[in-house]
Specification:
By secondary structure, the protein is mainly alpha-helical. It has 16 helices and 4 strands. Strand 3 and strand 4 form a beta hairpin. The structure holds zinc ion.
């Protein structure tokens, strides 16, 4: 294909993607003031509800500003041959294709991170602060940045270097090697996430003996689930928002509860949240999600292998000498409509799984404590009770509170 045509397609994809996103945001915002569904009338009192209204409107406006900034930055960068410029800088250092790719992505990633830091700063220290969510200190904020960069350089850099190397010796067959590498890496990270990555950012400690632990163990026993690893994580170091998640499998499986969750919920409610997490495990959601993401990666890499060698991809971004890393950038943008679709399917699947996990908790423990925990968590994070259907369909990985409430009430 003609590089000029490809250039216009790339620009069109970025603009269309942005417009669709803004239409969805606007639709969603139009329903911010809808009446609260009667079943959820006890979530907020009047003051809290008004606070939640202000919060979501402020988040909405902020989202428009950040996304507009980032789309203009991307467009400007492409139109004014920014990638060619960074490619030149990288080539001034070395001729080695692997090092050029590493320097190139290093500059792009760190540059864009620095440019967007004022926005994340504002989000944390102005918006979240104003609504009482923020617990992050400035020191933690910067340490998180540095640790994030460090991880990106070691892990991202390592994987990128290997993939470029595969491309050098295997040509278009590189995707097989890359696929195996990424698959092994994701299984490894999934398995050891809690032991290797989390300690860089948080403190975790085993849940102490006491009535909560006893209740959890009694429940786990009743459903035949061996659960030796229950950890409390210091989520309160950054935010008052609460969470719980499952990670690993086999002997490495563990449930992690945020200290904020333990503080906000009654013991029965915590067991209900945990029962939901056990449901994910028992219904094999962890494995299915991992397999789905490995298959998507294989598909993406295969598609990449068909196009990455084409000089038109690099030329579309104003770079005369074709290279793997420039091809990768152009492909990444051209692929984004497909990744929107796979993302949509993954969200759809995830919402199905949430219902299954809720039903599991309902059947093995009880609907009432799960309902009250979901309502409390919604209230404490000032979540939107009236999202628009299309927005939910595109963006939500969980059903809405109302949908989950109705599902849990069904048949009772
Ligand atoms: Zn879940």
């Amino acid at each position: 294909m003609n590089p000029k045509t490809l250039f216009y397609i790339i620009i069109a994809i970025i603009i269309i993607d942005f417009i669709i996103d803004k239409i969805l945001d606007t639709l969603n915002a139009k329903h911010f003031d809808d009446p609260i569904p009667q079943e959820l009338s006890d979530v907020y009192n009047k003051d809290e509800y008004e606070k939640s209204q202000r919060y979501k409107k402020e988040r909405y406006r902020f989202g428009i500003i950040t996304s507009t900034f980032s789309v203009l930055l991307t467009l400007g960068f492409i139109i004014f041959d920014g990638f060619a410029w960074v490619d030149d800088i990288a080539r001034n250092f070395t001729d080695n294709a692997i090092l050029v790719a590493l320097i190139f992505f290093g500059i792009i990633m760190i540059g864009s991170d620095i440019l967007t830091t004022p926005f994340s700063w504002y989000s944390t220290f102005v918006i979240e602060e104003k609504y009482g969510f923020n617990k992050t200190t400035k020191k933690t904020f910067f340490l998180d940045k540095i640790k994030g960069w460090f991880m990106m350089i070691i892990l991202g850099g390592g994987i990128l270097a290997l993939i470029v190397w595969f491309y050098q010796f295997a040509g278009n067959d590189f995707w097989w090697y890359a696929w195996i590498l990424v698959a092994v890496f994701s299984i490894f990270i999934n398995m050891f996430y809690a032991k290797l990555i989390v300690p860089l950012f948080n403190k975790q400690s085993p849940l102490e003996e006491g009535s909560l632990r006893t209740k959890i163990e009694t429940y786990a026993k009743s459903v035949g689930f061996t659960l030796d690893n229950i950890f409390i994580i210091d989520g309160s170091k950054r935010s008052t928002k609460a969470n719980a998640y499952f990670s690993g499998f086999g002997k490495e499986k563990r449930i992690t509860l945020f200290d904020t969750l333990v503080k906000d919920l009654e013991e029965e409610e915590i067991v209900a949240v945990l029962a939901h997490e056990v449901g994910h495990y028992k219904k094999n959601h962890i494995i299915v999600n991992l397999l789905a993401s490995i298959l998507t990666t294989g598909f993406t890499l295969w598609l990449l292998s068909l196009f990455v060698g084409s000089p038109a991809l690099s030329q579309a971004l104003g770079v005369e000498e074709p290279s793997f890393h420039i091809g990768l950038i152009a492909f990444g943008i051209l692929y984004s409509p497909i990744s929107e679709i796979t993302g949509l399917l993954m969200n759809y699947l995830s919402r199905k799984f949430e219902y299954q996990a809720d039903n599991y908790a309902k059947n093995t423990y009880g609907a009432a404590p799960l309902i009250s925990s979901l309502k409390k968590l919604t209230k404490n994070s000032l979540s939107n009770l009236t999202p628009h259907k299309a927005y939910v369909f595109m963006h939500y990985s969980h059903p809405t509170l109302l949908q989950r409430f109705r599902n849990l009430k069904r048949g009772l």
